[in-house]
Amino acid sequence: MNKSLVIIPHYNKLSLLKECLKYLDGQNYVNFEVAIVDNGSTDGSAEYIYDLSKNDKKYHAILFNENMGFAYAVNKGIKYAIENSFDYSILLNNDAYVKSDFVENLTDSILSHRDAFAVSSLMLNFKKPNIVDSFGDYYTILGWAYQGRVGTDINEIIEDEMAFSACGGASIYRNTVFEKIGLFDEKFFAYLEDIDVSYRAKLHGYNVYTCKDAVCYHLGSATSGSKYNKFKVKMSARNNIYLIYKNMPIYQLLINLIPICIGTAIKFIFFLFRGFGFDYLSGTISGIKNCSMVDRTNFRRINIANVINIEVQLIKNTFKYISNFIKRHT
Predict the structure, then answer these.
(1) 88-97, pLDDT tens digit by residue?
(2) SS3 content of the chain, % helix, strand, coil (to 5)
């Protein structure tokens, strides 16, 4: 029987964590355990997590003295899963509340797709539970990442789909693929590391799927505190440069250079009007200056057919984004 480790990266907001765990405790599927990775919380979370792990063998505590970032935290959890022979790692935000069949349906879904690196859940807006928050993530030739089906009515989700990336907030990953392609890039610290690792998996010929029956309700930005802030804007801009540098061979980068420049300019104007223009520009410049710090993919080991397939997906995703944007604003 396939076994999963649910990995919850956590930083303060103990009340969110307790609520999250309450829903996990209600699962009708029992072949999973939970690792809570605390990133140096100062609100009593570490003590609570430690006591929980001592009183219930289902829970495992991984505690840091400082905030090491999302990527470092989940990697510690994934390494623990691999070392202890768990077949799958399920990443779950502390502000995501899952339905009782969440783990079971995610597990069944990844079992049904032998080529799957990951399966992304159906995340619904906690405050508007009939509205989709994310149904997989996507990436475009403009250098933009976006949430699949965001803002649409749940009744529009009639079947599972193939996504570009699994959302790191509520998805299942195959640990044997992690062992082949590597874990989340810790140099990203936070934001877009889930797009990066899925991109890498696609370069190696794996796919990412969605599962409409694996449902969770997402508060959204509950830990960071806002949809946009200086840290998030700057970090995302920097990491987007890292993402492109790492995963696009030179010929693909040249093909997409003009669309990427256009996308960067549009984003700069967007954030300029929201008071974050300098932060976005600063992050972009930092990414360009420091991109050599990240490990670029060895494209000699990558089948060019996989790159072509990715390029087709990027183009399709761009048109999907434009179509959905027009639909939401008309």
Answers:
(1) 999 999 999 9
(2) 50, 20, 30
